[in-house]
Structures are given as C-alpha cells and as structure tokens.
C-alpha cells in the first residue's frame, strides 16, 4: 500500500521564500492536502499502497511514473556500492537536491529529507513540514534519493543477485557518507543536522540518529514502522478499529461473500472488480483487502464506507469502490498484486519489486488475517507471503525480522532526540514508538492517518494536527538551540 501510495495522487502547496509556520496557518484555506507521505514511495504488502500513491502523486504533477524525466534541480553524488567490504570498489550515482533559500550560513542547521521506497523529486525540499522547519530555524534543506529507487540505480536490472546490496544498513551508510562529504565540501561542520522522514524513511531517520549520533543531532520520525514484524495481523485489527463498528462489519461481510464468489465464479467476480489480470485467487483476495486498506490509511474512509453502508449488495459496492480507486490513482488492479512484481528492468518510476525485496529480506510487514474477527480473507497467511517471496526471488529468501529488530532495537529504541509522530487512524502506528521515553518524545495525533504531520498545512486540517505541528516545531527548535523556541523563531523570522 505504501508503495502504491508513494506513487499516488496528492496536491502540493508552493512554499515561498518568505514562508513561515504562522504564514502557513494564515493561508491554510488555500493550501491543498497531501494524501501521502510527501513524496511517497514503495512497494510490496501494504507498503505497496505507498508506492502506488507515490506514482499517483507524480501524475498529479504531470509526470509519467513509467518514464520520469530528469529533474532540473537534481544533483549527483557518487556513493559506494558496498560499505562493508573493502575489496568491493564499485560505485553508483545517487540523486540529491538542495534548497538554500532559508539558510543563515555557518552554524545554522541542516534539515535532511531521507529518501525511501520510491523516486524523489525536487518538491521534497520545496514544500511540507520540513520546509517550514527550515524556514523557522534558518536551515539548509537537503534530500538524498534511496539506492535502487528513482534514478539512483546501481544496476540496469533487478535480479536477485543484483538486489543483494539493497538493504537498510547500506542505505544508512549511503546517507552517512553523503552528509560527511557535504559537510566537508560546503563547510557545514558547525551545523547541526536534523534527519526527517515518513513511513519507511521515518524508520530510517530514527535508525540514522541511533547509529550515527555523531552526525545527526536529531530525528523527526513520522509514522515510522521501526518494529519488523513477519506476521503483521495487527494491521488488519487497526483497519477494523479505524473503520468503525458499522463499516467494519459491512466490510467483513463483503469479504466473506466475495471469497465464496471467488471459489465459485472467479473470472466473473474479478471482472466486476476490474481485476481480470490477477490470476491467483488468493492474490485477488489480497488485492481487494489492500484496496480497502488504502481508504483507511490515506483518509478515504468515507469513500469506502458510504458505499458499503447504503446498499444491501455489499459485493457490488466493494467492486464499485475498487474501480473508482483504480481510476482515481491511474493504476490498474494488477499494481496491487504483490505476486506480479517480476519485471527485472530498473525503470525510473519502478519501485514495487525493490520494496517487496526489502520486505521479504528484512522487514516482513506481511499483512495477514488475525485469528479472530478478520476483515481480510483468512487465506492471506504468512505462508502465502513466503511463497510469494520464493516465487519472486528464489528459495531461501525470507525476512530476517529477529536480526533486524536486534540490530535496530525494534519499537524499544534506546536513543535520544528522536521525535516519533503517529496518527491515531494509521494501521502502521502499532509498529512505531507510541510511548514517550526520557529523550524520545512520542505524539499520537487524534483523527489523523499516515504521515499527516509532514504534509503542507491545509484548511481541512483538524485542530489536533495544527497543534501537533507546533509541538514538533517547538521541540526541534529547543533541541537545536537549547533555549526558548519562541525566542529563536522570532530572531530568525
């Protein structure tokens, strides 16, 4: 879902050089709401939604995600292919972006947008919460595209052997090498660095502060699933809770009826959903569940629930929603099918096969059906996901979730100056840090979903979100300056 969402449709507000948080609030009624985590990226399981959403975002900007053009503002950095073996000398080019509009010069902070499972664009350093933070603190803005995504490909194809170097650890070292080089080259040694990300990049942001505290002074980790989980049935439970009793009951009934129809007349029911190209019946049930989850995760709950609650033909209402969502995102049904990511070409707008590799290799994040009261089909199991991993990448490729959690600490991180932010309606929040500790504040924003705090302010924002952004800005400023954040902002603005 995340990958789909990352490719998805959203609208940005333009941030002028004179923008400030106060001005953002004043003009909020004219600012449109981003539906996803800023630039969004990804592929595979529900993160699959983010990748799809990111592609839709590109389309809303007049870009074809299958044929991205060079960004006029993009720059290139040479990074090592393998940071852990000295004998490996190969390198690759990574895209990055700079916005120095607000930069106060030597000693002022640097805000870094951490790339994730999808192509980045220059817009990540031009709009959104990170830009407001830079404006308020006289900060320099940087963004680094994640290896294997967008145009930052080490190889021309995505075979299993070539994907060996696609890991979160390698990505963190990419960022470390990049920031040390930028600091040396541009005289930023006296500048405090704040790393910012949402969803998987949010986890990377937290992990970077944990592993490289001598480089990053602070982290803003929005909707960050820092706990690897192979059997992520809690996602389905969160969907049920966020949907509400009535809608959840209707959706459960629709799923049960749909599963019976798939067993008796699979071709007919897939056609009704606009999903004739999905061959496997369990894959189709997964796709249907993913489309429903998209509504919950990205603020479209009313589009799904209103259809289900005003009709007795629940399957037909579900099918109409499916076709509506495909049209809205400009995506075919097959895009939601995680078993279909077999293409080996490393295209500029492709991110699905790469993210599924990361899920199969490191994180799991497999959205399975819980034992009691599942919303999705009980046929969607860990074993089904394991088979998908084997079919895509070969035998022996299974998520090493225990190793991942041992390395990073799971959702029991022991770091400092990491601000974890989650939405109360976000199914991914269960894998994040939701209980504040001494130097790791945590904020759950009532009535919001995935990465809501990173979006540009909008006239439709709930009051809880507006206050949360102010809390985040105040905390980051105090970490950077060690004094009253109001005084700091007044001095800079």
Summarize the structure.
The chain is α/β, with parallel strands linked by helices. The chain has 17 helices and 8 strands.
How would you sum up this structure, described in words?
- The protein is an alpha/beta fold.
- The protein has an 8-stranded mixed β-sheet with strand order 1-2-4-3-5-6-7-8, with helices on both faces.
Keywords, please?
single chain, 493 residues, 41% helix, 8 strands, disordered C terminus, 8-stranded mixed sheet, 17 helices, alpha/beta
Strand order of the largest sheet: 1-2-4-3-5-6-7-8
Strand content is 5-15%
Overall morphology: globular
> What oligomeric state do these chains adopt?
single chain
The residue-averaged pLDDT reads 87
- The secondary-structure class comes to alpha/beta
Amino-to-carboxy terminus distance: 39 Å
* Poorly predicted parts: 9-36, 38-46, 62-70, 483-493
Taking the sheet with the most strands, its summary is: 8 strands, mixed
Number of strands: 8
Round the Cα radius of gyration to an integer and report it.
21 Å
Helical content class: 40-55%
N-to-C SSE series? Answer: HHHEEEHEHEHEHHHHHHHHHEEHH
């Amino acid at each position: 879902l995340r990958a789909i969402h990352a490719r998805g449709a959203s609208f940005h507000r333009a941030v002028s050089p004179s923008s400030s948080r106060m001005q953002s609030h004043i003009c909020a009624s004219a600012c449109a709401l981003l539906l996803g985590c800023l630039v969004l990226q990804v592929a595979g399981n529900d993160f699959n939604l983010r990748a799809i959403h990111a592609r839709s975002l590109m389309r809303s900007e007049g870009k074809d995600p299958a044929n991205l053009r060079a960004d006029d503002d993009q720059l290139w950095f040479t990074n090592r292919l393998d940071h852990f073996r000295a004998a490996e000398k190969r390198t690759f080019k990574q895209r990055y972006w700079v916005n120095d509009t607000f930069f106060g010069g030597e000693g002022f902070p640097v805000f870094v947008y951490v790339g994730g499972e999808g192509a980045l664009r220059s817009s990540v350093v031009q709009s959104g919460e990170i830009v407001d933070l830079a404006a308020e603190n006289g900060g320099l803005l940087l963004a680094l595209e994640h290896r294997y995504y967008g145009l930052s490909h080490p190889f021309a194809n995505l075979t299993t052997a070539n994907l060996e170097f696609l890991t979160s650890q390698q990505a963190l070292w990419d960022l470390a090498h990049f920031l040390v080089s930028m600091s040396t080259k541009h005289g930023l040694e006296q500048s405090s660095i704040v790393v910012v990300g949402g969803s998987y990049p949010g986890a990377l942001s937290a992990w970077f502060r944990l592993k490289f505290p001598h480089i990053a002074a602070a982290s803003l980790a929005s909707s960050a699933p820092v706990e690897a989980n192979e059997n992520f049935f809690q996602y389905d439970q969160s969907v049920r809770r966020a949907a509400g009793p009535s809608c959840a009951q209707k959706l459960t009934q629709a799923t049960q009826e749909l599963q019976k129809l798939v067993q008796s007349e699979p071709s007919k029911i897939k056609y009704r959903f606009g999903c004739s190209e999905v061959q496997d019946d369990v894959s189709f049930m997964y796709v249907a569940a993913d489309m429903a989850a998209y509504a919950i995760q990205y603020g479209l709950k009313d589009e799904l629930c209103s259809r289900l609650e005003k009709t007795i033909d629940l399957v037909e209402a579900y099918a109409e929603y499916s076709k509506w969502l495909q049209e809205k995102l400009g995506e075919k049904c097959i895009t939601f099918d995680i078993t279909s990511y077999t293409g080996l070409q490393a295209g500029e707008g492709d991110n699905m096969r790469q993210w599924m590799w990361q899920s199969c290799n490191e994180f799991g994040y497999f959205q399975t059906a819980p034992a009691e009261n599942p919303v999705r089909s009980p046929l969607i199991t860990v074993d089904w996901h394991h088979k998908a991993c084997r079919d895509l990448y070969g035998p022996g490729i299974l998520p090493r979730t225990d190793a991942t959690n041992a390395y990073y600490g799971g959702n029991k991180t022991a770091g400092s100056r990491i601000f974890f932010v989650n939405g109360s309606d976000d199914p991914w929040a269960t894998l994040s840090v939701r209980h504040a500790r001494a130097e790791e504040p945590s904020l759950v924003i009532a009535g919001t979903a995935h990465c809501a705090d990173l979006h540009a302010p909008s006239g439709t924002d709930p009051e809880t979100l507006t206050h949360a952004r102010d809390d985040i800005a105040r905390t980051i400023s105090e970490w950077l300056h060690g004094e009253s954040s109001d005084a700091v902002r007044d001095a800079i603005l």
